[in-house]
Specification:
The chain is of the alpha+beta class. The chain has a single domain (4-81), classed as GIY-YIG endonuclease, CATH 3.40.1440.10. The protein has helices at 24-33, 56-69, 72-81, and strands at 4-10, 16-21, 46-53. A three-stranded antiparallel beta sheet has the order 2-1-3, sandwiched between helices. A hairpin with a 5-residue loop joins strand 1 (4-10) and strand 2 (16-21). It is globular and about 30 Å long.
């Protein structure tokens, strides 16, 4: 079973994007090239945090929980600490 990653992008306007993938390098290239519709409008997004999980299913579960929270302060705290503190 493939491992997975949860990642956070931040653009120059301070907007965040939370995503998950099994191949971080490919996914970041997709975001950078503008082929990903959800981040196409972001102003020069850069990755500010990523965390590896044993499976892509775990990573997707964490991504969903983070998106449901809709709390900017919690996302910023995770970025400052360099760690996502959620369980699948």
């Amino acid at each position: 079973m493939k491992s997975g990653f949860v990642y956070i992008l931040e653009d120059l306007d301070g907007k965040y994007y939370i995503g998950s993938t099994s191949n971080l390098g490919v996914r970041l290239r997709q975001h950078s090239s503008g082929t990903t519709q959800t981040t196409r409008r972001m102003n020069n997004p850069r990755m500010v945090l990523n965390q590896k999980y044993a499976t892509i299913y775990e990573a997707r579960s964490i991504e969903k929980k983070m998106k449901k929270m809709k709390r900017r302060d919690y996302v910023e705290k995770m970025i400052r600490e360099g760690f996502i503190r959620l369980s699948p």
